[in-house]
Task: inverse folding
């Protein structure tokens, strides 16, 4: 189990949330936009990652990998982030936030599930009540920036409408449209602008243009040496 100290930002104010997560799920190949999903598959194939036999795929990851820390550690400079909306259920309520499915690309070439497990999954410390965005979900925008060779670049950007709607994502996972209490699920990502690249820092955001607000987060990558 992982306990996260979060802040709920709602239309009526802010409140603390202690979220106890005992199941973490990464939704892979969760696109509604088949052309964009095909583009992402081609990106990964260029790195030696085999495409799945069917989609979407639900990868299980240890809940302990969730973190709001500003720095994560990885062995070797072979990993990169992916911005994703994150749904979590706590105390009978569903919330939405944003995180990064940080993945070891070298390990991914021989074991996608293993590659998901070996990296921490950074998330923003702020969430919104899902019910506040459910009615205009498709208007939300995902965006990420990466610091590469000292330059901060726009890395990903696009409407969340290209990804599966939350109810469809959850239904594919457990056969219902409801997320079990204590579960967090990452909702899929979009292609990287210019292709997948490794970065020293990754930043992500979820923008709500209807209610004029955003959730932002960022983290630095500390590279550990490979000694054998």
Result:
């Amino acid at each position: 189990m992982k306990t996260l100290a979060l802040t709920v930002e709602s239309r009526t104010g802010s409140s603390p949330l202690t979220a106890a997560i005992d199941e973490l799920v990464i939704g892979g190949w969760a696109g509604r936009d088949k052309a964009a999903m095909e583009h992402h598959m081609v990106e990964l194939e260029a790195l030696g990652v085999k495409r799945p036999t069917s989609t979407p795929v639900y990868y299980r990851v240890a809940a302990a990998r969730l973190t709001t820390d500003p720095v994560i550690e990885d062995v070797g400079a072979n990993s990169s982030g992916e911005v994703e909306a994150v749904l979590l259920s706590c105390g009978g309520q569903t919330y939405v936030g944003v995180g990064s499915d940080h993945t070891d690309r070298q390990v991914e070439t021989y074991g996608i599930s293993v590659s998901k497990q070996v990296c921490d999954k950074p998330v923003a410390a702020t969430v919104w009540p899902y019910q506040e965005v459910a009615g205009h979900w498709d208007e939300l925008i995902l965006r990420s920036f990466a610091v590469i060779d000292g330059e901060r670049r726009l890395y990903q950007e696009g409407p969340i409408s290209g990804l599966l709607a939350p109810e469809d994502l959850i239904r594919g996972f457990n056969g219902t449209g409801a997320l079990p209490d204590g579960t967090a699920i990452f909702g899929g990502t979009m292609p990287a602008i210019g292709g997948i690249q490794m970065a020293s820092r990754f930043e992500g955001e979820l923008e709500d243009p209807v209610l004029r607000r955003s959730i932002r987060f960022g983290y630095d990558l500390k590279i550990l040496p490979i000694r054998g």
Remarks:
- The chain has a mean pLDDT of 94.
- DSSP finds four helices and 17 strands in the chain.
